[in-house]
Amino acid sequence: METLYKSDTGKSEILNLYDEKLKDLNIDYQYKEV
User: What is d(CA 26, CA 14) in angstroms, rounded to the nearest whole number?
Assistant: First the structure.
């Protein structure tokens, strides 16, 4: 599978944004995961 990221730096930045959003939406995320 081809990477969607231009670089490892871009990848880590995107993953950090995901982590921040998951913390903000933690309750919704837990419901969806079940």
Answer: 18
